[in-house]
Amino acid sequence: MDTERWAVSVPRGYRVGDWRVGRPIATGSWASVYQGVRDGEDATRAALKFLPTGTVTRRQLGHLKDMTQREIRLHSRLRHTRLIRLRETLVIDDAENPELDGACVLVTDLAERSLADLVAGGTPVPDAPRLIAEICEGIAHMHAEKWVHGDLKPNNVLMMADGSVRLADFGLATEIDGTHGYLPPMGSLDHVPPERWGEPLSERGHAVWASADVWALGVTACQLLTGHLPFNAPTARARYVAAAEYAAGERPLALPVSLPDAWRSWVGDCLTPDPRLRPSAARQLYRARVLAGTVEASNRRTGIRMAGATAAALLMLAGVSGAGMVDSSVADPFGRWLRADSDIPREYRALIVEAGTMCDEPGLSPALVAGILKAESNFDAGLSDVANNEYGLARWTPSVLQYYLPADRRGVVPTPPFSPEDAIPAVGRYLCVRLPLMAGVPGDPGLLGAAAFRSSDDVVRRENGIPERIRPFVERVQKHRAEYQP
Predict the structure, then answer these.
(1) N or C terminus: fewer CB in 10 A for the chain?
(2) Over the stretch 168-194, which tens digit does the pLDDT of each residue have?
(3) In 3-state terms, what secondary structure has residue 99?
(4) Number of structural domains in the chain
(5) Considering 59, 90, 110, which residue would you say is the last residue of a domain?
């Protein structure tokens, strides 16, 4: 393979520390990867990632230094079976070879191939559900440790000799400081969420949230399951425009027809236009395990079966941060969120916890959601108030509920009756969108959210607090929230 035009061209047999450069593997715009062999009894093999110094401009050198430091910092802090292992870091000292002198070399475990090789054929990848679940394990672990990958795509997911996958290429990974991190203006157009370029570019880069990885996760899953990207157009730029138009509500989400029905909602949720409403990687991990058949979507102790979307709540209820399994021996996995001796129906507790943990907005909690449902309907899923056009547990009006359904069903006015699986998570989505809009209004954020749910956030802002006419409703929510809080 001719490597003359690679980002870093290294001759076969070149020595780097204890390693001898072997066959070329892959190159990108900024780095090149070769197989490395360490001579000895076992002839150990590794991947050598070369990052140049002398062949780039001063500005490019600054970018490379930043990306290299990001990658090394992540490897020094995170350890997980779904993240590629960094063995050592080397710096080339070769004054006679100025193109390589000073280059940084990252020595990692050697993979068989990247998933980009598998999706290139335009057909579904064998064992795609398992691969997706394993990718979720890596992303969920990174998010739990307050890191965003920033460049998730098939090229950066490696398949090892045993068939398992590892996330790699952390040059755009960033630590979350508070709610978000910052990335330089780089990334694959096919996998970057539309909101990325709408963020202002500061000295630190574009602001980025963990939800950006969830969007890329949906795109990657679609590729593995169908062999195609979710937005159909001839060029990456045209596909990005299509994604931006979808996010702006100017076109529907038209996923490939070959996408299995069981995965359509999973992918669609990852591609939710509003990043605040995208599910967490931990929630998608559990759903992926259910769909892959590696875990049963049920509470084995109580025998209550739940849909994959709601069973995800068990992952958090058991105190598992992404990569663990649900402990079926826990008598009440919901106890850390809701009082066990309350009147909340058992069959709704997982749904309520899913809604109450859907985002990190101040004031949102499962107890608040339960309090709203109690005040609205006394947990009556069959409620039908035709005179006010309100139905179900949360007294949803059909024309409003349409905007808070899962992404693949959004925009179509639903017909009552409304199932608890639709009505309860929609309360969480509503609050995740509306609570930030009332950040400057004085008062208890959760109760302001309840007031907005019964009226609107516009009314709450205009009144600069809870309107008098709905204060009795809000007081009932406050009373029940206190009763349901553990």
Answers:
(1) N
(2) 988 888 888 888 888 777 778 899 999
(3) coil
(4) 3
(5) 110
